[in-house]
Amino acid sequence: MRSDDGGEDPTSRRAVLATAGGLTAGAVGTAGCLGATDEVRVLAAGSLAAAFENGIGPAFEAETEFGYAGEYYGTNAVLRLVVDGTKHPDVVIGADAALLRDRLYPDHADWDATFAANEVVIAYAPETDLGGRLAAGEPWYDVLADADAGEIAISDPDIDPLGYRALLLFELAEREHGLEGFRAAMADRVAHVADEPRLLAGLENGDRACVVAYRNMATERDAAVRRLDDAYNFGTREYADRYARASYTTESGHTVTGSPVVYNATVPADADDPDAGRAFVSFLLDNEALLADHGLRVDDTLPRFHGDPPEGIAP
Questions:
Q1: Which terminus of the chain has fewer Cβ atoms in its 10 Å neighbourhood, N or C?
Q2: Which of these three, 220, 235, 257, is where a domain ends?
Q3: Shared-domain flag, residues 65 and 190
Q4: What angle do CA 197, 168, 148 make, to 5 degrees?
């Protein structure tokens, strides 16, 4: 075991699958029988919606005695729903390990398991001018600097770590390349998409030229991507100190610093079915290949534990 220092609009599972990963915020997975008494209820970061609905949830049902039901929001929104008592899920999963601990410890949880990693990429529409320039290898920050208002989309930085990581990405580029005012200019120019699971839909319907996304989201939608150097992509633990040089303060006054993209899961203290919750977390830890199939990264640094997990939680 390693230590780690480091209003809703539900849709049916049939509708979710029909959109091939184009999920709405708060989408509820209804895999299996909704009337089942033994069902794990998962409240997770929106970037995991397609992976969990199209693969991980059904696989969990097939291999265990439990059904699966998932809801997906930006991580800030996920944690707020738990803290204010609106939701009582069996599992909570966030896309910023430190943020989950800051919001849920010690009143709602005292342990978590980091089970997968991700990285930030720029997804683009190749037929657009910006997309063509990215595909041709021009420096991404020069390309984005020429964008018109609304051509680039990010998720909402006040509810979602992906959104504030996009702004931190712009800040890191400004620092590294002497691009005075780049972050502020980009913050004024980008469009905010509150519904993280539908962030990439703008590329497909022609509304956007580029989207700052996670790699797994682009993989699920088969979008063209511009990979970023490790110094910018928030995907490498060795660059954690560099990422931390950039920070963002949300509208609620909470300041976050840059950090590697890792997903951590916990079973809240007031979970309705903690046995189902522990079974699902254990399933995540024991199915690295399944996570990788859906664009997530699991290397030899994972899983990691923070706090003392209950008996039975182990890879």
A1: N
A2: 257
A3: no
A4: 70
- Residues spanned by the domain of 69: 13-118+262-307
Same domain, 136 and 232: yes
- Tell me: do 158 and 113 sit in the same domain: no
DSSP string, 113-150: EEEEE--EEEEE-TTSHHHHHHHTT--HHHHHHTPPTT
* Residues 164 and 269 occupy one common structural domain: no
Beta strands in the chain (DSSP E): 39-45, 67-73, 91-94, 111-117, 120-124, 152-155, 191-193, 210-214, 224-226, 247-249, 255-257, 262-266, 304-307
7 lies in some domain: no
User: Is 2 inside any structural domain?
Assistant: no
Each residue's pLDDT tens digit, 214-257: 999 999 999 999 999 999 999 999 999 999 999 999 998 989 99
Find residue 214's DSSP bridge partners: 120
- State the pTM of this model: 0.86
DSSP per position, 11-59: --HHHHHHTTT-PPTT-----S-TT-SSEEEEEEEGGGHHHIIIIIHHH
Residue type at 199? L
The C-alpha atoms of residue 264 and residue 92 are separated, in whole angstroms, by: 8
- Please write the tens of the pLDDT for every residue from 97-136: 999 999 999 999 999 999 999 999 999 999 999 999 999 9
HSE-CB at 262 with a 13 A cutoff on CA atoms is 28
- Percentages helix, strand, coil for the chain, rounded to the nearest 5? 35, 20, 45
